Amino acid sequence: MTTRADGRADDELRPITFTRGFTSHPAGSVLVEFGQTRVLCTASVTEGVPPWRRGSGLGWLTAEYAMLPAATHERSRRESVAGRVGGRTHEISRLIGRSLRACIDLAALGENTIALDCDVLQADGGTRTAAITGAYVALADAVTWLGAAGKLSDPQPLSCMIAAVSVGVVDGRVRLDLPYEEDSRAEVDMNVVTTDAGTLVEVQGTGEGATFPRATLEKLLDLAEIGTATLFEAQRAVLDEPYPGELPTE
Amino acid sequence: MTTRADGRADDELRPITFTRGFTSHPAGSVLVEFGQTRVLCTASVTEGVPPWRRGSGLGWLTAEYAMLPAATHERSRRESVAGRVGGRTHEISRLIGRSLRACIDLAALGENTIALDCDVLQADGGTRTAAITGAYVALADAVTWLGAAGKLSDPQPLSCMIAAVSVGVVDGRVRLDLPYEEDSRAEVDMNVVTTDAGTLVEVQGTGEGATFPRATLEKLLDLAEIGTATLFEAQRAVLDEPYPGELPTE
Amino acid sequence: MTTRADGRADDELRPITFTRGFTSHPAGSVLVEFGQTRVLCTASVTEGVPPWRRGSGLGWLTAEYAMLPAATHERSRRESVAGRVGGRTHEISRLIGRSLRACIDLAALGENTIALDCDVLQADGGTRTAAITGAYVALADAVTWLGAAGKLSDPQPLSCMIAAVSVGVVDGRVRLDLPYEEDSRAEVDMNVVTTDAGTLVEVQGTGEGATFPRATLEKLLDLAEIGTATLFEAQRAVLDEPYPGELPTE
Amino acid sequence: MTTRADGRADDELRPITFTRGFTSHPAGSVLVEFGQTRVLCTASVTEGVPPWRRGSGLGWLTAEYAMLPAATHERSRRESVAGRVGGRTHEISRLIGRSLRACIDLAALGENTIALDCDVLQADGGTRTAAITGAYVALADAVTWLGAAGKLSDPQPLSCMIAAVSVGVVDGRVRLDLPYEEDSRAEVDMNVVTTDAGTLVEVQGTGEGATFPRATLEKLLDLAEIGTATLFEAQRAVLDEPYPGELPTE
Amino acid sequence: MTTRADGRADDELRPITFTRGFTSHPAGSVLVEFGQTRVLCTASVTEGVPPWRRGSGLGWLTAEYAMLPAATHERSRRESVAGRVGGRTHEISRLIGRSLRACIDLAALGENTIALDCDVLQADGGTRTAAITGAYVALADAVTWLGAAGKLSDPQPLSCMIAAVSVGVVDGRVRLDLPYEEDSRAEVDMNVVTTDAGTLVEVQGTGEGATFPRATLEKLLDLAEIGTATLFEAQRAVLDEPYPGELPTE
Amino acid sequence: MTTRADGRADDELRPITFTRGFTSHPAGSVLVEFGQTRVLCTASVTEGVPPWRRGSGLGWLTAEYAMLPAATHERSRRESVAGRVGGRTHEISRLIGRSLRACIDLAALGENTIALDCDVLQADGGTRTAAITGAYVALADAVTWLGAAGKLSDPQPLSCMIAAVSVGVVDGRVRLDLPYEEDSRAEVDMNVVTTDAGTLVEVQGTGEGATFPRATLEKLLDLAEIGTATLFEAQRAVLDEPYPGELPTE
């Protein structure tokens, strides 16, 4: 018996789509959609690395997350106009960067930087997990681009795939991939970042106004495994298509 | 004989498209494309007006323009991270706000604010004129929304249509709707904002490293008239379709 | 066989001390020490609540975390001088606030705010978990103060105790309460916030350069349970002593 | 029949004065007055150029515009105290820089920078056009100074003179050089920057609450030509006097 | 025997001039000159007081000090562009405010604020003492203006006059009113703010790289008394002239 | 007859204590207490000097002062969160730096910097003078550390001792070392920084709402001499103990 507002089963993802080559300037550019949540994830390659890393011979990967002002139901204030990046934005940017650095051998890039930008065009819950999942696809495209440009010392610097999903307890039920309507009233909210090798990269679970027993944590992790398995399939399917655009020639 | 890199005649616009209802939260949401230049223009309605306008009974219209970091060929720094909005951004935001305020009777809104957000997803020259042209369509949708919500004291507060186009002198030739490749080496660069009544709202012409005789100004204005005539047709065509989404009921 | 540099067993906490009444202005003021990590946790009561909460009749609890410049081995730049709070600081401040809000009935405070300030005087790993654990004791004192001042509608607004500990994988071994020397080279790093009722408030686990199987997550959670059990005992012991200072009279 | 509050004809400028050597530290220092509008324009020479221009062998010219807090009728907030430069300030600073770069051969300066500072001591409309017109005189003095110091590879790097004037439609009449009283209620407001060779550098026309036909634009440009012709005469007259101060010896 | 570069005796001031009504918008506007040091001091009257003083029935007086970028020998960076007010600027602004609040009965103003702005047009040492001395004259004019406007509950709210002067030890000699050339190499530097009743408002003495015996302090204070006596005469002389401009009628 | 709230004679200091080695990372770390005022003063050694001093062969000494939010009776806002350092903080930081630079031969350090951080844990008046007095002890320890590390070209770069005390007029009586209760209602407030050679480094006296005759200044200086004599004894006594911690070996 289904009880979710959108008719999904508790362990069912929203429709997932990836549009590669959504814009054409960056080496990777993917519009990822988890239902109504839509995030533009780009991977730009720039020469050089941050000052603290210069001379190391190693590359770097950094990430920035942001919301367009009209992405949310009520328009939110533009952070550039406010003159500072908010705490939530900072936190998610750091999470995306850490998560994607887990799958890449930065030594293979030489002293080049990949900048991942995840800009939420429309928010309906799960923006950070959609961002991570879409950023992986953009990163894979950027790696293909770097390889074609002859900038990789190792032809395959990605050691695994990365995907993330939100899980939570809503109305006392453990559920996968929460939309805003569920997320905003969830008792427990958890984001899980995993690899296609079955290992965990990051687990962040929070009781919202409530606390939760460890048994709940286990159920949430089970559900996240189901969800990310489907996401890896979707990533693989879309990455089986050729690079969307023109590749550089060495 | 055509000499433009993209095969256009000197007085020809790039392909223009408007996608209404591109996102669903704001009252108006339009993706406008001038060739490869793509700008998401949203019009959000919020209750209340800025402090200096409170108690006037009048509404307000404000605009903010921004570029996604990967919208340009070389990734640019995110202004929220830099902690300040740059001069160019400020200038264009002000231009968009002034231009659209020229067509609306703010008294009809009561003390409500329409916030126009123009976020450049991909930049290929003419982002500010595309933004104004797209913002008009988003504004028209927001006005429809306000009417359905019973928030308008005058059922048709828009007195005219607004469109804008760039013109310039490139390779010694007067040309319409410059892409980045032409814009970056133009000798004269001009942005013209007009109404469908044939009047001017704003004219901004600049010699770039060169100065220009008044005769050139005249030719540029002639060309801008040709361009905006086509843009008004395109706006009318797309606005003939019904409101893309659900309207509020009073 | 012990292999830790400081001679501890893998499942052993560093020496834990709480000094209540460390300073005398705020309603709660606790110096917490986890070995060489020393954090001053204060709980200040102020009248009123943030604007978005006014008129609700509910109180609020907020938290700010910071490091003194000389708290770390290499002096770090003062964030007030830099003109912005860093991402890590933001993230930890938010974590502390969420964690402590999990144990308090904010309705009982009326429209008053408790501000928790956690300033790290000396850092040697685990500053955020020490801060949460110490902040609970400061909060308990502030609640006592509020009760004496006749400002509580419910005499016992704390529903449970809160403590936090770090766990991680170092040199391939699962360990409790990592000092800097271990933390800086941990393969997996996890912070666990729990209640004395045995439930979880927050779990944040991160692979650092590595990913980890779910079995490791389980072992880390087991260890965190052992650690927080000891922390709750220490909190109870110190809170059995009378309020350190003069209480207001109603 | 005169209808202007200050008794001027529609095509008449306010009294214009330039005081060269108003202060003595910068290489050029000119107090320009357009009636009650008074702007201190200085041109400072500094060694080196911005990072993005280093190694080019070319010089640079930059400009900053600001208002003293008490320059306006109502005291305005100091931008340094606000912590950010406002949009209007940014826009005018950029306009001044562009306008003056149109007359100078930056290659002749070597890697040196001329910084133009235009500080409004008293505002009565037309501050930006007064600033540009005064800045040209300060720039001419700085060029003389640079020549005396032996820092110019080309003895005359200025290819033309630059002056600017505001024109507008007030009470339905096309008028030259608007004071605040007219500017604040103008239907159309235009700033025109020209060279003494009769060419245009920048044209910025805006309908304020109204739009305007192209015929009005033509009349405004005619009037601006009349105004700048007088300004060039005044600049020439004052620059015929010797350099006000001591010149460096090579 | 005179040893000072500008020919003055050790106990001699530079030529002092006050130009009242230097600009016309603010209630008081005085250009003060101490030799080559020139500071524009304005006193603007605004309705209302800062939030923390509302409802007190008392007025307020505040001060802001700033330097134009080209006021110094080497152009200095504009603080609005830097995005923050420097420590020295802050310190002097606070000093000016404190000094002038010493002579005025703020109760007589009702809930109105006098904002003193001291903008250095040209700096040659002693800018803060010139600013205080000039600000007193601007303040006296603003008080006259307030009286004419019928906004004073006490017709004479100024209880004394305020003047300030710098003194120092240069080349082992105790000297009055140091220009930049002396100030920059002074062994001891002192700023003294006094009333015409012979009392002190503020004394700030600093050894610069050296320390100084109390006997030197005494000599410096003697010299400051001589200097301020002359400044009070000059202030009185200029204030004997009528108010420079039109006074409001009640 | 004693009239002070805390039972002290007018010329009596509060109990003074110094705790060396209060924290262990910085080369000098001293908790100084003047009664209830408690300031943590650290001296951190870092390689290199600010850009404007590079290549000079000289070292540098800088200071930063700050208050913890809960140090004052009413919690104050954190300056890092406000995004800017306040005027008072700036002013005191500069005073501490100047005062301590008076006793050290910076040439002896080579191009190394000593950063003094004075963080007020609890404020009860006189925080800046306590900070200076404690910072001297921390500096002396840092110098010992530098000597042991073989980084001093002159084994004793400190030419004198530095101590500071506040004096003031309260209830018409001249008093030493004012606590907050006296400081907040003092008619005259003065901070005096001296050397143990009997000379002055800095004198800052301010009338608070009142002005004061020179005779009062003399009495205040007499009292400050008495106070600093006792402080020098206390500094000497504590510095007679060995360095609190492990010294580097060259």
TrEMBL record, chains A, B, C, D, E, F:
Gene3D superfamilies the UniProt entry points to: GHMP Kinase, N-terminal domain
Residues annotated as domain Exoribonuclease phosphorolytic: 12-142, 160-225
A GO term, aspect molecular function: 3'-5'-RNA exonuclease activity
SUPFAM superfamilies: Ribonuclease PH domain 2-like (SSF55666), Ribosomal protein S5 domain 2-like (SSF54211)
Pfam families to which the protein is assigned, alphabetical: RNase_PH, RNase_PH_C
UniProt key word Transferase: yes
Positions contributing to phosphate binding: 88, 126-128
InterPro entries: ExoRNase_PH_dom1, ExoRNase_PH_dom2, ExoRNase_PH_dom2_sf, PNPase/RNase_PH_dom_sf, Ribosomal_Su5_D2-typ_SF, RNase_PH, RNase_PH_bac-type, RNase_PH_CS
Catalytic activity: tRNA(n+1) + phosphate = tRNA(n) + a ribonucleoside 5'-diphosphate
Top-level taxon in the UniProt lineage: Bacteria
Family assignment from sequence similarity: Belongs to the RNase PH family.
Protein's name in the database: Ribonuclease PH
Organism phylogeny: Bacteria, Bacillati, Actinomycetota, Actinomycetes, Mycobacteriales
